[in-house]
Design goal:
By secondary structure, the chain is of the alpha/beta class. It is built from eleven helices and eleven strands. Helix content is 40%, strand content 21%.
């Protein structure tokens, strides 16, 4: 018999995600339901004084209500709502928190960058497919931020949150999202990523054989597109996504205007405008760190929060 379930709703800059999970008798945290809704609450996140729009907050509230309803049949013993970069950085983040509280009765927890990075790391250790890894990096690219972690002997030795999210960088470097992704934008994004990494306290100091794990939507979406092109499902594909794969994807879909890009199987239409930037970001990250590939894992922030909530039961 399974133990009690917990529900986690992660309110990100680009999407809002639900995980209903429980702990099996062997201790493994296992999903009972997982769902993602694209809400893009973070429009304007690149401004010097970011502010959530009325439309963005309304989309966020609707998505939260929908996901709470999805979780209800599982009768979760605990419901956790968290928000990351978009709400954390917004001048009116407190207003959004108050609206969510009035609408749902739940208190929205704002994660600091360090908390977000460390909980992503905790979630990753729930992935049985990665149980043999000892020294590895983890990168989770969202709409507002990029979380970078280093594990040595399966313990986090470095966790850094950088303002390199794909919505943020698209607003900053892409003048016309409806047009093909221009080479000057790709060059500017890559340069900005290298400079930001160099100015941060994140160091690529693990042994050269260390694996890079990609837990965010970018690597997962790239894998889904590659699967669709091969006539397969995501679950039927190898979790390894190579740098060559990512470069080829960007060369292909980046040359398309937005409308045909939105028709690509495996690419959610709501993400098509920021996905070239996201690909350019993970490519520049791999080039800077010297990684030939990413190992994709679906065990990310929500799993870390679920493990935390289940431990507290």
């Amino acid at each position: 018999m399974s133990g009690p379930s917990v529900a986690v709703i992660d309110i990100g800059s680009n999407s809002i995600k639900l995980l209903v999970a429980h702990r099996r008798p062997d201790g493994q945290v296992t999903a009972r339901l997982s769902r993602t809704l694209d809400a893009r609450i973070s429009a304007g996140i690149s401004r010097s004084a970011p502010q959530l729009s009325e439309e963005g907050m309304a989309r966020g509230q609707t998505a939260i209500q929908t996901l709470l309803a999805d979780a209800s049949p599982f009768a979760p013993a605990c419901i956790v709502l968290v928000a990351t970069s978009a709400v954390r950085d917004a001048r009116n983040g407190a207003d959004f928190i108050a609206r969510v509280r009035a609408l749902t009765g739940h208190t929205l927890r704002i994660l600091s960058g360090d908390e977000e990075a460390n909980l992503i790391g905790r979630g990753l250790t729930c992935d049985p497919a990665l149980a043999a890894l000892r020294d590895f990096y983890v990168f989770d690219l969202g709409g507002g931020s990029l979380e970078c972690l280093a594990f040595r002997d399966r313990r986090i030795t470095r966790a850094v949150s950088l303002q390199l999210g794909c919505v943020r960088l698209t607003e900053k470097f892409v003048a016309d999202r409806s047009a093909p992704f221009a080479e000057p934008a790709a060059t500017a994004i890559a340069s900005h990523i290298r400079a930001t990494l160099a100015a941060s306290d994140f160091a690529f100091s693990l042994p050269p054989v260390a694996v890079a794990v990609g837990t965010g939507g970018t690597v997962t979406t790239a894998r889904a597109i590659l699967a669709a092109r091969a006539g397969a499902t995501l679950e039927q594909t190898d979790t390894l996504v190579t740098l060559a794969d990512l470069r080829a994807l960007l060369a292909w879909l980046g040359a398309l205007p937005l409308a045909p890009r939105q028709q690509i199987p495996g690419l959610p239409p709501a993400r098509a405008d920021v996905f070239p930037t996201a690909l350019a970001t993970v490519i520049a990250l791999a080039e800077t760190g010297g990684f030939p590939a990413y190992r994709n894992s679906l065990h990310n922030l929500r799993y870390g929060l679920a493990a935390e909530a289940l431990d507290a039961r």
